Amino acid sequence: MAINKNHEFEELDGIKCGIIEKNVPPARAEFLKQLLEYNRFTVKVVPSPAPKAAAKPPVSEGGEAIETPPTPAPETFTVGVSDYTFNPTNAVYGRSLKTPDGHIVTAAYWLQKESVSHDEVPYYEFKEK
Q1: Is the pTM of this model over 0.85?
Q2: Strands 77-81 and 43-47
Q3: Which of 6, 4, 19 minimizes the C-alpha distance to 84?
Q4: At 108, is the secondary structure helix, strand, or coil?
Q5: What's the pLDDT tens digit per position in 67-97?
Q6: Residue 78 exposed, middle or buried by CB count within 10 Å (0-12, 13-18, 19+)
Q7: Cys-Cys with 42: which of 16, 46, 82, 98 at CB 3.0–4.6 Å?
Q8: Which residues, at least 6 apart from 100, have a Cβ–Cβ distance to it below 8 Å?
């Protein structure tokens, strides 16, 4: 059981893993996998379980159930690392992860808001222009 929401772990494919993110799209899962493998973590990516179906079908004014085609669930993934003590928040703000080009991973880079990590100035001193 996790101590807090920022440090979750569970079994993925029979391996106890620290959860990095849940319900992420395929592109985000691939980004995290490449970044974490570069930092020498063993990464597990598994499909997230499908969301539960609606409890009651919609009803027309006459009281009959309306047939609606099932909408396919979006394909999402759960990303974890085999080091279940790993905490992604501490790793990013503790500046312990590196990008493949040698820069320190910043919060904006981790969230994919920037394609290049600007690690010269710590996040708490960075001022936007």
Answers
A1: no
A2: antiparallel
A3: 19
A4: helix
A5: 666 666 678 999 999 998 898 988 998 889 9
A6: buried
A7: 82
A8: 34, 35, 38
